[in-house]
């Protein structure tokens, strides 16, 4: 793998295991399918959310060349008392947004030795140098890239955005020192959105997200929102909630399977499979080939039904 940063998907399973790969414990991500305050409160404690969106055509990237952002206010003084890093490399914004929540909630979460050392080392540095430290961290880059979808056609280190490309970006929202902050590595400073605590975070962040989405045409639906929450298994173990523990075990098994698939390039396999199918069709003849296909479909359907039943019983 090259020394660059590859793109990762905005996916709860990817981000949860990315965190664990970096050594953090006791947290996971949950996808949010609606901007519903009650749903967010049900996930409490919610340490922050990560928002993926498409840049508007002609948008000034996070207001970098503006005196103030479109919503909220830049808080340049806050940088000294929180973790805020400038994004200095392409494709790193997903992991950077994740760390923007995690490292600002370090008093409530178990970071693990590597991230604790990284936070302590960068705590007195300006945001641009923090960004360089993040981009040059071998552990963070390697862990990030281990969740990138394999592609035999695109070298992400050479990818450049043109005016015709859809460009997407991750940012984070989290409460720090009694204030709701928007943390965007392309912005010159954290963006303050007013008073907020961990307890009031769901009701404080949703109006900010709604205003941001309202800037887009009503036909635009390409947004994704995931929340960093406490690992549900912690409370489930404490109260002996076996149903939740079993549900979470199934969820994590599915995440592990999906993450394993992301690491593999199946183009060669598909190519060889197509060759064999064509060879079998030419050898067996059209009628026998069709019979073979129908039999394979029936066996696949039967196997899926068996697996589904086993999953319910387990």
Features:
314 residues; alpha+beta; Ubiquitin C-terminal Hydrolase UCH-l3; 2 domains; seven-stranded antiparallel sheet; cysteine-type deubiquitinase activity; protease; Peptidase_C12_UCH_sf
Please provide a written account of the structure.
This protein is of the alpha+beta class and about 325 residues long. It has two domains: about 10-230, Ubiquitin C-terminal Hydrolase UCH-l3; about 265-314. It has helices at about 10-20, 35-40, 95-100, 115-120, 125-135, 140-145, 200-215, 230-240, 240-260, 265-285, 285-314, and strands at about 25-30, 45-55, 75, 170-175, 180-185, 190-195, 225-230. Helix 8 runs antiparallel to helix 9. The longest helix is centred in the C-terminal third of the chain and has 28 residues, at about 285-314. The two termini are about 40 Å apart. It comes from Trichodelitschia bisporula. Keywords: Hydrolase, Protease, Thiol protease, Ubl conjugation pathway.
Annotate the secondary structure layout:
Elements: H1 12-21, E1 27-32, H2 37-42, E2 46-54, E3 73-74, H3 93-102, H4 113-122, H5 127-135, H6 138-145, E4 168-176, E5 179-183, E6 191-195, H7 201-214, E7 224-230, H8 232-239, H9 242-262, H10 267-284, H11 286-313
Antiparallel strand pairs: 1-7, 2-4, 2-7, 3-6, 4-5, 5-6
Helix pairs in contact: 1-9, 8-9, 10-11
